[in-house]
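sorry for the late reply, my laptop died twice this morning and i had to redo everyting from scratch. anyway the thing you sent over, i finally got around to it. pasting the sequence first so we're on the same page, its 334 residues, then the predicted structure underneath. double check i copied it right bc i was rushing
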Amino acid sequence: MSEPGRVITYADAGVEALREEMARDASIVYIGQGIGPRGGNFRQTRGLWKEFGDERLRDTGICELGATGVAIGAAMAGTRTVVDEVFLDFALEAITQIVQQAATISYMSNGKIKAPVVIRGAMGAVRNAGAHHSHTFYNWFANTPGLKVALPATPYDLKGLFKTALRDPGPVALIEHKSLYNSKSVVPEEGYLIPFGDARIVREGKDLTIVAMSRMVDLAAKAAAVLARDGISAEVIDPRTIVPLDRQKITNSIKKTGRLVVIDESPSYCSFAGELLAIAVEDCFDELQVTPKRICSLAVPNPFSPVLENQMIPSVERIVSEVKVVMSTSRRKS
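ok and here's the structure:
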């Protein structure tokens, strides 16, 4: 959003989305550890417990399996629930509830049972938190039929996507990034929805297409600004949701530019970045001027060492350097 307006943080945008939807829909219940009087590890529910009370914000113990099971069961019984896994890493404690129950119950019951639950969690590397608190396995959820996956990269997108998730008839994984909670952007005070499957063109360009998710969107935009100074015009696209995916907007851009680079904080092997390269080959093979490229994190557990972690994760400098290599090569024979 470039127009003048109110600027708030990513964390506050999520709180605002929740407040608006909980006031609109009395069936919404929020479940998770530390989300009551304390307001969450990332201040993601600050002030809501005082406003809506213990009946609608259920502060649980540290048991992701139990909290997620209760949330999914409550959703099947007629409420609309949010379960806050806090750190996405520990959603694995509840993965059987998410994959085997929430994602499949509508199909297995022939539509008689719904599970309108939002599985909320924060992913990614921040403050050198080490391997247990830095995973970025959002692509695992994308591999689960029946589960939608949203990756808001800005406060504006978080508010709009969260509100859409809270109105969806099925399960949604709303996956935030820990390093974004203090980021700021213009967010309208009035309510608005962002439809799933509608990618955002962050920056228009003509020489290559860069697709990036979550925190990597900001790095891709900064790299594009650096590249522009060297005469390279990069188009940056944020899918916003990867299930459903705005395949058309992405492939239209690739057909225009003839080049694709994907920036992904996950390791490259079996990553969503690989899926985007497959789409480029399937839909845009004749237009591609060079082999598509992934710029991903190294396939090692996140180290505590700041120097090592910085080497592991894509950076603006690495993106600029590798894009220049892409721009200097071609698979076409003259």
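The two ends are 42 Å apart (CA to CA).
thats about all i looked at so far, will dig more tmrw
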